[in-house]
Specification:
Rossmann fold; globular; alpha/beta; 4-stranded parallel β-sheet; 6-stranded mixed β-sheet; 35% helix
Length: 411
């Protein structure tokens, strides 16, 4: 049995096919490419029940991932993050069946490790010597770490305002780091020029400019199904910047239908959550459009979703339409309040992007889009501790011998 059933790359826009064993970028029509597999052969060979005996990482689904040689797998144990109920926050929001997939408990502290593990592994297998990318922080940290593990060079450009800890992670991993006075789109233009000037020494691994990051992200969909006993929740709420994870989960569900691992009726509604300071997908969805317009002066405390115009906008919007999903924007003040409320009620310290999903759930329940009976899963895409500025401690300072006020000791 082959380690991977990868068959070819395909353009979802014009259906042109490409050789999967050549370094792939965008289609000639400008669309991102998607990896395709011989799912008929995979279905005949694989028994989903046997997966439970495998190592609990995303590589348990290796037949449905693009790396052909197991010796080229670059791993730090990523994947199989837990599903954590949020009963008290859910009850307060009117959605008692609220569950979180906690991607903060993964190497480098964010779900970006999934795309980096698979993307770097496949890049190395194809003979790539170095990777280059723009990033809002966490993707650069993850790709530089996995590139280091694979013995590849990494060139990272990120906005000057990106979280400091992600900058430090890149430096620690030996990346060539450049800080840009601007947005991720500005960093992307600089990276594109650098890749062109490098003459093949660097591969541009910007979001969806190579086809394999999405393959790592899609494993969230496989894991959710397996963890729920081979079914999907009613609704999946996803913080959307570049949207790779949302596209990937949608792709995973489609593949599982073809494999016979999920019944055709099992298709969760997908919800794209953005911040009011950068909401191109929300506006396009509300207008019934299939592409986004660039968002002017993009700005939000949820820095990971500050993407003025995602390259995969059509794929995101198509996934929302196909699943009867929706898109909505939330305010920074509200997501920060819900971040603290979730920690207070359920002890979970989410990243701001994950907290945006909490606010979205509350808003969808208030509007009636959710009726409160649904099983709703949110993605917490990173470790809250990587964002210390989201909570400012306001604690009294005591001198030795001081007493805590009596009023503070009673309920």
């Amino acid at each position: 049995m082959p380690y991977s059933y990868l068959s070819h790359l395909e353009c979802p826009r014009c259906q042109q096919r490409y050789d999967a064993d050549q370094r792939g970028g965008l289609c000639s029509c400008g669309s991102p490419l998607l990896a395709r597999y011989d799912l008929g052969a995979a279905a005949a060979a694989l028994d989903r029940g046997e997966l439970t005996a495998r190592t609990p990482s995303l590589w348990r689904y290796h037949e449905l991932l693009p790396v052909r040689d197991p010796g080229r797998v670059v791993t730090m144990g990523e994947g199989m993050t837990p599903l954590v109920p949020l009963p008290r926050f859910g009850a307060a929001a009117g959605v008692p069946r609220l569950v979180m997939k906690d991607e903060g408990l993964i190497p480098t502290g964010t779900f970006k490790a999934r795309g980096a593990a698979v993307g770097v592994s496949r890049a190395a297998e194809l003979g790539v010597r170095g990777v280059a990318m723009p990033t809002n922080g966490n993707a650069g940290a993850a790709w530089s770490a996995y590139a280091a593990r694979a013995g590849l060079r990494s060139l990272i450009a990120m906005p000057l305002d990106a979280p400091l800890i992600t900058r430090n992670e890149c430096v620690a991993a030996g990346a060539d780091l450049y800080l840009v006075r601007g947005l991720i789109s500005d960093a992307g233009a600089i990276v594109g020029q650098a890749v062109a000037a490098a003459g093949g020494a660097l591969m541009d691994v910007s979001t969806l400019k190579e086809p394999y990051r999405i393959e790592g992200k899609k494993t969230m969909g496989y894991e959710i199904a397996e963890q729920l006993g081979w079914r999907m929740p009613d609704v999946i709420v996803y913080p959307t910047g570049g949207g790779v994870g949302l596209i990937g989960i949608h792709k995973a569900v489609q593949e599982m239908h073809e494999l016979g691992w999920l019944p055709s009726s099992q298709f969760p509604k997908l919800v794209a959550v953005q911040a009011s300071g950068c909401a191109p997908v929300v506006v396009a969805h509300e207008r019934g459009q299939r592409t986004c317009q660039p968002w002017p002066d993009a700005r939000t405390v949820a820095f990971g979703i500050t993407v003025p115009k995602p390259l995969g906008d059509t794929l995101i919007l198509d996934a929302l339409a196909a699943t009867d999903g929706t898109a909505l924007a939330v305010e920074d003040a509200d997501l920060l309040a819900d971040l603290r409320e979730c920690a207070r009620l359920d002890g979970e310290f989410l990243c701001p992007e994950g907290a945006a999903c909490l606010t979205a759930v509350r808003s969808l329940r208030t509007s009636g889009w959710l009726d409160g009976t649904e099983e709703v899963l949110i993605l917490n895409t990173g470790l809250g501790l990587k964002y210390p500025g989201t909570v400012e401690p306001d604690a009294p300072v005591l001198d030795p011998g001081d007493s805590i006020p009596a009023a503070s000791l009673t309920d």
